[in-house]
């Protein structure tokens, strides 16, 4: 993310892709303005938070008018669409990993999974979703330096040693889909997504906070 000109809080930065996707849809449907209430309804973020987020990048909505869709679109494009592609590797071509290889991240982001690694001989040497699968032993040799992000979809017990190797190889960000809590040096960014926990949490909220 290009935050050179504008320093925005991390929590705001995390919501930008969400806003961006919605604004893109609005723009393609020919809408010229949007109110924070409409945005709030669509992206499920309260409108006070939206107004505060937008104020960080100078989008000051006018009362009774809302926000200019073109302005927002230009801002998001500049901020989120890096000029060059971000190259991503995926480690662990199991059920989840395979789904990601088939999923076209390029549609909405400038990110591309360029190679995958596994230890299962039946997968090595194959191409899944157009992405070649190599043996994990070849990571040091095969992975080019421009691969800066890794998706981890391996069994939890092997997540930490693999993360260590990725960091050693120069990876700057890891999206960890394993339930393992991985330790990385301070300068490496790691995001944890535990789908089982997310699902459990959704069920919990449905049960304890049912909407009227
Ligand atoms: P599958 O049905 O293919 O086993 P899964 O998602 O249920 O998928 P997992 O046991 O979670 O299976 O393993 C995910 C993937 O990680 C598998 O393809 C497995 O071969 C791979 N894997 C296991 N250990 C390692 C390792 N040390 N390094 C890289 N990949 C590994």
UniProtKB/TrEMBL annotation:
GO-annotated cellular components: cytoplasm
Positions contributing to NAD(+) binding: 92-97
GO molecular function list: DNA binding; DNA-binding transcription factor activity
UniProt xrefs under Pfam families: CoA_binding, Put_DNA-bind_N
InterPro entries xrefs: CoA-bd, NAD(P)-bd_dom_sf, Rex_bacilli-type, Rex_DNA-bd_C_dom, Tscrpt_rep_Rex, WH-like_DNA-bd_sf, WH_DNA-bd_sf
Domain CoA-binding: start-end pairs: 81-181
UniProt record, GO biological process: negative regulation of DNA-templated transcription; response to redox state
SUPFAM superfamilies the record matches: NAD(P)-binding Rossmann-fold domains (SSF51735), Winged helix' DNA-binding domain (SSF46785)
Function comment: Modulates transcription in response to changes in cellular NADH/NAD(+) redox state.
Subunit structure: Homodimer.
Entry's family note: Belongs to the transcriptional regulatory Rex family.
Descriptive protein name: Redox-sensing transcriptional repressor Rex
């Amino acid at each position: 993310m290009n935050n050179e000109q504008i320093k925005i809080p991390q929590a705001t930065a995390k919501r930008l892709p969400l806003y961006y996707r919605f604004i893109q849809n609005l723009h393609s449907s020919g809408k010229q303005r949007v109110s924070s209430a409409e945005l709030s309804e669509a992206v499920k973020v309260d409108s006070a938070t939206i107004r505060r987020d937008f104020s960080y990048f100078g989008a000051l909505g006018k009362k009774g008018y809302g926000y200019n869709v073109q302005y927002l679109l230009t801002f998001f494009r500049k901020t989120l669409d890096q000029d060059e592609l971000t190259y991503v590797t995926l480690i662990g071509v199991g059920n989840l990993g395979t789904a990601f290889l088939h999923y076209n991240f390029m549609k909405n982001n400038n990110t591309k999974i360029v190679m995958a690694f596994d230890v299962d001989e039946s997968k090595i040497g194959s191409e899944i979703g157009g992405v070649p699968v190599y043996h994990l032993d070849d990571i040091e040799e095969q992975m080019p330096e421009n691969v800066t992000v890794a998706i981890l979809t391996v069994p939890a017990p092997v997540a930490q040693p693999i993360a260590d190797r990725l960091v050693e190889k120069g990876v700057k960000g890891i999206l960890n889909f394993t339930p393992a809590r991985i330790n990385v040096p301070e300068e490496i960014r790691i995001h944890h997504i535990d789908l089982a926990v997310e699902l459990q949490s959704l069920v919990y909220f449905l049960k304890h906070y049912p909407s009227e």
